[in-house]
Amino acid sequence: MKGEVETGLENVVALESSITFIDGEKGILQYRGYDVEKLANLTYDEVSYLLIHGKNPEDEELEAYSRTLKDERRIGSTLIEVLGFCNFNIEAMDALKTITSLMSHCDPDLNTNNPQANTRKGMRMIAKFPTIVTSFSRLKRGMNVIEPDYEMSHGANFLYMLRGSRPTNLEARIIESDFILSADHELNPSTFAARTVTSTLSDLHSAVIGGLCTLKGPLHGGARMAVMNMLDEIDSPKGAQNFVLHKIEKHEKLMGFGHRVYKTYDPRARVYKQLAREIAMEKNDMKWFEIAEKIEGAAYEEYVQNRGKPIYPNVDFYSGVVYKYLDIPPKLATAVFATGRISGWIAHCLEQYSDNRLIRPRAKFV
Ligand SMILES: CC(=O)SCCNC(=O)CCNC(=O)[C@H](O)C(C)(C)COP(=O)(O)OP(=O)(O)OC[C@H]1O[C@@H](n2cnc3c(N)ncnc32)[C@H](O)[C@@H]1OP(=O)(O)O
Ligand SMILES: O=C([O-])CC(=O)C(=O)O
After folding, report:
1. ipTM (interface predicted TM)
2. Which residues are annotated as active site (predicted)?
3. Is residue 1 part of a domain?
4. Number of folded domains in the chain?
5. How far is the CA of 188 from the centre of ligand 2 (A)?
């Protein structure tokens, strides 16, 4: 056995991948060689195709990809019935993992594990996640489930199914960018989990369930829900400074801040901050944005003063602010993140299957 224990596998390079590049010192993030800031202006379908197929789609390829995703949006009455049985005190993530598991039973490619079948299975999950999450949310609020629209964009249809009314153009644009910005992030914990499941040659639904269970934790995607709860708790820009000081005094983590890889501002947080500003202005309600800016300012100053170095917002911070403005309930936040992340998981699982070696590190016995 070589080497010392790297706790949390920090800086351990576990595999080669041609999907996503991160420079954590400079704050650069690229999917398939393209800066995420630019990709955030495309459609989710385009970026999903890019991640999964490793190239930009030709017009007709995008047309066909998008058509399949739209046509696959519907979930059957059995899945809706089971959603109805889910405990409504749970987070949408728990419903999503239950339904993903059940969905595998109904998948026509259930027992096939080749690249074509896995791409089809992956596309079904990408298409149906918005329907599952929004249906759960509506049932939880005692409302009827909305049939998907088969023409709207991925993002616009998500908000339509959540609310039962069409979103504004800006809202539709913002949720589309949200799904793109959330879509992939190299070997983050949930993707690593999904790849580990894949590396045993288990099936794609199992790998995605592994990803969902991992994303849910508050140190990972669960921080997005925690950020929304924090905004509610602070409730006014005046309360932000004290909130941050209190966290430092109690040696508690500030949710939506810090990152294993970024030593500087997370490039996605910068885009989310701009989106949050735009939606706040459209709604003529700067409250959540101002609270967030105060938290960010206080976190920077107080951590420099108390710990000698700043902490910066990560992807979960301003996305939580954006969700406040989109009226996404906190218990839905991490499942909305997963609705974007699913394309990244599928891309990584396909890459893993295509050149597989069992992922199996060692422990140092003590
Ligand atoms: C989609 C995503 O997963 S993005 C991350 C979402 N998670 C969060 O926002 C939760 C809050 N953040 C954190 O817990 C961490 O920053 C993590 C889990 C993201 C990264 O963790 P690690 O790389 O293991 O860093 P670790 O937790 O060891 O922190 C290193 C130092 O920075 C401090 N630190 C890191 N993040 C924070 C934070 N959010 N608030 C306060 N201090 C922090 C730690 O206390 C530690 O200080 P010390 O060296 O004085 O003990
Ligand atoms: O990369 C990570 O460790 C966490 C993260 O930002 C993500 O999954 O988007």
Report:
1. 0.98
2. 259, 316
3. no
4. 1
5. 5
